[in-house]
Design brief:
The chain has about 180 residues and is mainly alpha-helical. Helix content is about 55%, strand content about 5%. The chain has a two-stranded antiparallel sheet with strand order 1-2. A hairpin with a 5-residue loop joins β1 and β2 (about 140-145). α5 (about 110-115) packs across α6.
Length: about 180
């Protein structure tokens, strides 16, 4: 997918449900991000109030067990070191290793045989990024149409009622709106 394809250039044409779902996902992502940054904010606030902390925790009680303090700080630094060592080991282990491999090429006749389609249909499947495939009652492709690149999106397929068929939408509903 090209970067240009992911950019919504006509937001007024995005369906309301899809817009609502992505708005909710964005809110959840920002909430998670803030939740992850909360410890950093706590650290900064703690550093700003270190004198107050000292006065309240040490001066009031007059005694701090240094062994416990050293143990807590040592454990935190030790765990941080273990995490850094592990991360660096994983980085070195997988450096230069591309696990995503290009799939092997498949002959058009093999695709046609696997789908139960004619070579003409499989030829159309290879020509476009987005293709609408029409199938017969047995589920075999009988016709394929390449979706023009000028469309901002492909309409969602409609589900057939139980025991019924779906009537195709009129072409005017599928065409992009004229640009003023």
């Amino acid at each position: 997918m090209r970067t240009q394809d992911a950019v919504i250039s006509r937001p007024e044409r995005v369906p309301r449900v899809r817009h609502g779902v992505f708005t909710a996902l964005t809110a959840v992502a920002w909430t998670g991000f803030v939740w992850l940054l909360a410890p950093l904010l706590t650290l900064l606030l703690w550093a700003a109030g270190a004198a107050t902390l000292y006065e309240e925790a040490v001066a009031r009680f007059g005694d701090v067990q240094p062994g416990v303090l050293v143990g807590v700080i040592g454990a935190a630094l030790g765990l941080a070191a273990v995490l850094v060592v592990w991360a660096q080991g994983q980085r070195r282990r997988f450096a230069g290793a591309e696990r995503r491999r290009r799939p092997e090429d498949v002959e058009q006749s093999e695709v046609a045989a696997a789908l139960g389609a004619s070579p003409d249909v499989t030829a159309v499947l290879r020509t476009g990024r987005v293709v609408v495939v029409h199938v017969d009652e047995a589920g075999r492709p009988v016709r394929a149409e390449v979706v023009p690149a000028s469309w901002s999106g492909v309409p969602a397929p409609r589900r057939a009622p139980v025991g019924g068929t779906v009537t195709p939408e009129p072409p005017s509903a599928l065409e992009p709106a004229p640009v003023p």
